[in-house]
Structures are given as structure tokens and as C-alpha cells.
Amino acid sequence: MKGQTMTFDQPRPLRQSMSWLHTWSGLLLGWLLFAIFVTGTLSYFRNEITFWMQPELHGAQPVATDQIAFLRALALLGRDAPDAQQWSLTLPTPRNPTLGLSWQAAENRPPAGDVARERPDQSGIRGEGEEGGRRGNRGQGGAPSPDSAAAERSSSDGAIRERPNREGMRGEGEEGGRRGNRGQGGAPSPDSAATERSSSDGAIRERPNRGGMRGEGEEGGRRGGLQREQGEPDSLAAIEDRPPVGDAARERSNSGEARGAQRQQGQGGGGGGHRGPRLVLDPASGSTLEGRPTAGGNFLYRFHFELYGMDRIWARWIVGIATMFMFVALVSGVIVHRRIFKDFFTFRPGKGKRSWLDAHNASSVLSLPFHLIITFSGLVLFGNMLVPSAQQSAYPEGLDAYRAEARRMFVPSDIPKPSGERAPLTDLAALVAVAQNTWNGERVGSITITHPGDRNAVIEMRQMNFPGLTGGRNIPTLRFDGVTGEALATPPMRESSLVQAIGSTLNLLHRGFFATPVPRWLLFLAGIGGSLMIASGLIMWSVSRARKSPGPVPWGHRLVEVTNIAAIAGLIVAIAVHFWANRLIPANLATRADWEIYAFFIAWAIMLLHALLRPGKAAWVEQLACAGALFALLPVVNAATGGLALPGSIGRGLGLLIGFDLCALVSGAGLLFTAYKVHNHVPRARLAAEKPLPGTEPALLPAAMEEAA
Amino acid sequence: MKTWLAVDPAVRQRIDVGVRTVLAVLGGYGLALLGAAALAAGLPFDFRPDAVSLAIMLAFVLHLLAIIWVFATATVIRAVVGLAIPAAFFGLWLLSIRFG
Predict the structure, then answer these.
(1) Looking at the structure, do residues A214 and A282 belong to the same domain, yes or no?
(2) Where are the domains of chain B?
(3) Strands A279-281 and A99-104: what pairing?
(4) Measured by CB atoms within 10 angstroms of the end CB, which terminus of chain B is less buried, N or C?
(5) Do residues A508 and A437 share a domain?
(6) What number of other Cβ atoms are within 10 A of residue B3's Cβ?
(7) Residues on chain B touching A385 (C-beta within 8 angstroms)
(8) Which residues pair with A100 in a beta bridge?
């Protein structure tokens, strides 16, 4: 508190107390918030990141799936899962140029006929799907995932049933999974109900794209790998969500998970095999692609809200509390900044603290709506966990009642039960053409086949790019008789109440469930703006104090300086090392997905050590330069280790690889430039000692920097 | 009051900040929980999960406002009163729903 003292026991201006609150709420968990922001920002492209991290998949041709690929896909599904309750295919999308296959085993299904079929799941599932998806992905790619997929599935039995389709997604599902559990499975995850709901919508939408998720499977992958090793049930996902919910529910889900896990092993061949619920095909040739096991973008995604290596519920509480700090820092910062718009157009470079302040203001104000929404929606996503009293109060009869009622938000599925009579499937490629005609050329994103091989088989096609950011949770869907191919009535759409619409919009925005790249890129850029805002705020704390206190550096200031370096520059180095590790660790090493993560943490720890041992400025320069070099060379590493090089990805129009490589180049250049600027920087304090600072009249200094009298 | 004023101003300030921090974090969270409970049970929605969702959203806003109030107001006494009044309101509302 040395820098800014304030007296609380006498009247003082609001802005002064808010300035104090802004400073301390921002600093206290600022380092954690920076990591949450950076990993969350990258998570908008986690599918792309995971795809990049599986160079084995880079050869996939981003073409429309043709009849031969469909035949081959159905043959694979028929061979591997002839008795599945549902098969899912995710078609190539700009976010994932592969064809993904997954299925939901019939055994899993719980007897619960009713529940099972509810669509809610679907939604839920999907929601999860997104996550699930990634899992799934992983699974696919890395094979390891299979289990996870299975697990998830199982976990969500409920879910499973429900949405077989989604299954795929579900696979993904970490969230989904859990969701599934809850929602669907009947395992109600009460908590998440609200959230999930929304998420589900989001998910839903997403899915199409993500359908791809599938591919990506990052998490799935790693989960499959890691968790398994760790002995964690894959279905943690399922669990995770659920907070401290009812024990009964939890047990249920646990058992579900356990079951899942077993199953997984059974199916997945112990997880070791490459076959599993999720397969990845080249849509051009129909040949199977096997990606290396990788932590993928899912590691960053999980870290964003569950950190790593600790109990998920605890981690979520920590992240939730940090988010509340962020919320307080944001709003108090806005109150402090009455001249917010004027300041936005002010940038005074080369003026020490003033420049940092300008940078902090510009990065904050530029995307202030984003910061507020992302922070508030982050809280709401954990709402059932953080504010358990709402559900408890509204449902004195218990969690199950809440879940049951929340599930009504979803429309039950009306797909008939299997007849038991075998019948061949109709021509899938022809149905895809029909669907695309019906949609005036909009492409099919995913296909689910319920009761494949049965007389009552039903095929559902979901659109890849559904319109609208917030238009509802319903992706345009067409339904066909699986044997005759004739169109059936489309599944009922659900209406959202205002509250549900708000909830799903928040979820949608937070998680970037968009089919189109533009809003996703805007979120990504806003996330970078948020990261810069936090970083500049943290640095400003140090810079402003350094100037104020000549003489020996107080230990508190040195602590903040070292932590700033390690938390900001060190984290960026660690992320770069994570990507390098992906390519340098042998592709056939069984535990490679874990080692990608260990490499991240080892690098981070080394950066902390380095920051401790070196003078502040030198540490900044060296770490920024190191991060810059590592990022700038990533495209080279990609090309040298089996990935599709930049010229090739540009030639083939593989936007996700182009985006990754170019982002790495731009970030690397930016970091190197920053290191150069820091290297040449003359501390303002030294200048200040020589002559008075012009333009520092108190009236011009925003309150955040004012010193209490 | 006199003894309080006699304390070293630096110490007094630390105590003041400490008390306010506890009030903001725990008191504010308690108020948010209570408010969410009252709103979830009392908001007139036909579909109860909507009331739960909205109550959760409002709980975060409530906690935020409580924190700002606690640090912005002149004295600790005022900070406590400012939390107690809405807490009493939500508490009575909840009681009237349960037992009214």
C-alpha cells in the first residue's frame, strides 16, 4: 500500500476510493487473470491449434465429401460399430478439413427411454459437444481419446441417448459430457443447468463448425492420454461440471463415468489403439488419418478455466474468484475514468508511466464492452457453482426437481425406437445433396444416424453455417427416413424465454460459438486487447512505484516486478515451448501429450527462475526476445517436422494453418520489437531526476495515478 | 470513539482497510447469496429455472455493488448499514415467501 495511501476514515472523492479499489483488485490476482485471458483468447482457436498440432492431418483436402468417402465412412462404422445406437459424421469445415466419425454404443443406453430421448441432451450435448468435440477429436486424432469418448458417452448415458447425434459432440463433451450427465443423463447437473443450457445452445451452433471439433479433439486426446494415465476417469468432464451438487446425483454420474471408462477400455482397445469412437478420414480419399496424441489447444482451453493439476472444482472456484476481481477492477476502473473517451484518443509515447497509462486506457476502452461481457458471462458460466443459493431456494424439494424442470427447456426427441428389423441405409451422399438444395446451397455440417441398420433408422442433417449470432439455439436441421430417404418432419424447434436468450447469448459470446470467422477473430483480437490491458496495468503498478521511490527497491516492488516478468513474458515463452514440444517430442511416444504439458510448465518455471536471477530490465528483454524468436520460428518448425508449410497451406487454402503460422509470425515479430524497445528504453525515473516532467500537472493525471494527498 | 481516534493513524487505516475488505468479500458474497435466494424464489416467472438464472446473474451485480459501496462510503459504519439494509429486505422477502 505504499504507493497509494488512502484514508478511509474521512470523506474523500469517489474516484479516489475507486482508484484504490481498481489498483488492488487488479493487482492481487492480475497475474492469474493474465494467464486466464491469454489462454482463453487462444481457446477461440483451439480447434485450429489442435489441428496444427497434428501434422498427420494436414494432408486432408478441404473438399466436399463425396459419395465414395461416405461409403467408406459408413463401411468403417458398420465394421466397428454395427450395433451402435447412433453414428455421427462431422463433415469437413473451414475449421477442420477432415471427415470425423463417431458413434454411440447402444449398450450404453440406459433403459430410461424417456429421458434418453430428450433433445435437451442434445443441446446439452452439443454444448458439450464443443468441448466434447474436442475430446472426441483427440480421440480421433490421437487415438487415445477413444476411451474418453466412450467414457463420456457413458457418463452421459443419458446424454448419450439423447443425442446420439451429438454423440460426436458428446464425445467432446467434456462439458458436454458433464452436461450430458447432468442434464441428460438425468444426472442432472443442476447447477449447470442454466449455464449449460445456454452453453448448449451455443454449442449447438457451434457444432456445425466444430463439427469439426471433432477433429480437433484436443482435449479428448489429451484426456484420453493423460487422464487415463493419471487414473482419472475420463468422464471427469462430466463430473467437473457439476459442482457440489447433490451427492446422489454425483454418485450417479460417477458410476456412469466408471461405466464409461470401462467401456472405453473395452471399445477403445484400452485406449492404446487408434480405433475408437472417433475416426478421422480424409474427405477426398476416405482414407483414415491418424494424428499424434497431443494435448492440443485443449490444454490451453482447460487451463483457462480449470488451471492444471488440481481438483477441478477448486480450480473453478479460484478462477471464479479471480473473475469477480476482474469484474470489480473493470467497473471501478470505469468509474475512475470519467474522461474515458477523451483518454482513449490520447497516446503519449515515450513518457514513461504516462505512456503506460495511455496504453492501459486505450487497450481497456477499446474493447470495454468485450471485457465487461466476457467477465460477466464468465461468472454466469460458473453461476450455479458460485451462487448455489438460487437453485436451493427456488427448489426446496431438491436438485433433482430443478434438473428435471430445467430439462423441459429442451424439446424431447421424437425419434421412434428401433424395430429390430434390419434394413440397409439409404444413399447418404444423395441426401446431402437434397439437404443442400433445401437450404439453397448452405452446406451440411454434421449428420447423425440413429438406429443405423434398423428399419426405423433416422438421419438428421444439420447445417454448417447457421445464421445469426444470437438467433436461437436451433441449428437448421432436416430429418430423413434412414431407409427410404424420404424427408420427415423436422424436429421441433424450441422457443427461448428472454432470460434463456440472455443466458445463451452470454454463453455464446463467451465461448465464441460462431459459424463465421469474423466474429471469432473479433473476439480473439478483443482478448488480446484484454491481455494487454492486464499486462499494462500490472506493469504500470511497478513503473509508477519505481519512479516514486528512489533508493533501494522495496522487496514488495521487486516481488511484483519478478512476478510480472514471469507471469507475462514467461507465460508467452511457455506457450511457445508448448508448441515446440508438440513437434519435437517423438510422435510415437506414448506419453507425449503429457510431455507437451510438462514442457509448458517446465519452461514457465525456468522463466520464473530467470526473472529472479536477472535484473528486471534484462529479464524482460531476454524473455521477450526468447518468446519472439520461438514464435517467429514456429512456421519453420512446422514445415520441418511434417506439417504443411505456409506456401502449401496458402496454396491449398487451408485457412486454419495459414492463420496459425501467420499469427505465430506476427506475434514473434511483435515480441521481438517489444524486446528491442525495452532494450533501448531509458527509465523515466532517470530523466525525471534531471529535469522536471512536463505535462504532469495533477489535473491531467487520471485518478488511477493520483497519489492521495 | 476517543480511544479509536487515539490509535496511530497508520494502524487505524490498516484496520479500516482490513475491515472493509472482509465486509466487501464476505459480506458482499453473503448479500449476493441471500439476494439470489430471494430472487430465485420470488421472481414471478412461470418457468422457475428462468428465475434461478436471472437470480444468479443479479447476484453477481449485487456483489459488485456491495464491494463498491463498502469501499466508497465514508465510514465503516455506513458500509455495514449499507449492506444490512438490502440484506434485511431480501431476508424478509425470503421469509415471506417461505412462511407467508
Answers:
(1) yes
(2) 33-95
(3) antiparallel
(4) N
(5) yes
(6) 6
(7) none
(8) A90, A280
Best residue of A393, A507, A509 to probe chain B, by most B CBs closer than 10 Å: A393
For chain A, what is the domain count? 2
The complex scores an ipTM of 0.94
- Eight-class DSSP state of A705: G
Convert the pLDDT of each residue in A38-65 to its tens digit.
999 999 999 899 999 999 999 887 666 6
- The verdict on B11 touching A (C-beta cutoff 8 Å) is no
A200 closest CA partner among A220, A217, A176: A176
Pick A380's closest partner by Cβ from B16, B20, B56.
B56
Nearest 5 degrees, angle CA A603-CA A604-CA A606? 65
The Cα of A178 is separated from the nearest Cα of chain B by a number of Å equal to 19
Question: Does residue B63 sit at the A interface (CB-CB below 8 Å)?
Answer: yes
Q: A334 CB near a chain B CB, below 8 Å?
A: no
Nearest residue of chain B to residue A496 (CA atoms): B50
In this structure, are A223 and A95 located in the same domain? yes
The answer on A158 and A53 residing in a single domain is yes
DSSP-assigned letter for residue A308: S
Task: Please tell me the distance in Å from B40's CA to the nearest CA on chain A.
Answer: 5
B51 contacts A500? CB cut-off 8 A? no
Q: Say what the pLDDT of residue A628 is.
A: 98
Answer whether residue A606 is part of any domain. Answer: yes
Do residues A494 and A597 share a domain? no
Q: Is the pLDDT of residue A145 over 50?
A: no
Per the prediction, chain A carries an average pLDDT of 71
Nearest to B72 among A18, A391, A502 (CB): A18
Task: Specify the length of chain B in residues.
Answer: 100
In this model, does residue A223 exceed pLDDT 90? no
**Could you tell me if residue A14 is inside a domain?**
no
**A408 CB within 8 Å of a chain B CB:** yes
Q: Which residue of B has its CA nearest to A502?
A: B54
Higher pLDDT, A366 or A614: A614
Distances (CA, A) of B44 to A62, A213, A396, A399: 51, 39, 17, 20
Please indicate if any CB of chain A lies within 8 Å of the CB of B87. no
pLDDT score at A418: 84
A25 φ/ψ angles, rounded to the nearest 5 degrees: -70, -30
- A580-630 pLDDT tens trace: 999 999 988 889 999 999 999 999 999 999 999 999 999 999 999 999 999
Closest-CA residue to A49 (of A608, A675, A623, A600): A600
Q: From A468, A489, A515, give the residue that closes a domain.
A: A515
pLDDT, greater one: A391 or B100: A391
Of A121-130, A270-279, A543-552, which range is least confident? A121-130
Same domain, yes or no, for A496 and A577?
no
Sort out which chain B residues have CB atoms less than 8 A from A500's CB and list them. 50, 53
CA–CA separation, A545 and A537 (whole Å):
12
Residue A82: pLDDT above 90?
no
Asked if residue A199 and residue A97 are part of one domain, the reply reads yes
In a domain, A218, yes or no: yes
Residue A650: domain span: 554-709
A387 falls within a domain: no
Q: Are B74 and A11 a contacting pair at CB < 8 A?
A: yes
Instruction: Tell me the pTM.
Output: 0.76
B49–A21 CB contact, under 8 Å: no
Higher pLDDT among residues A160 and B98, named by residue: B98
Residue A367 is predicted with a pLDDT of: 82
Same domain, A567 and A499: no
In the 8-state DSSP scheme, what is residue A43? H
CA separation for the pair A36, A57 (Å, rounded): 29
Judged by CB atoms within 8 Å, which residues 539-558 of A form the interface with B? none
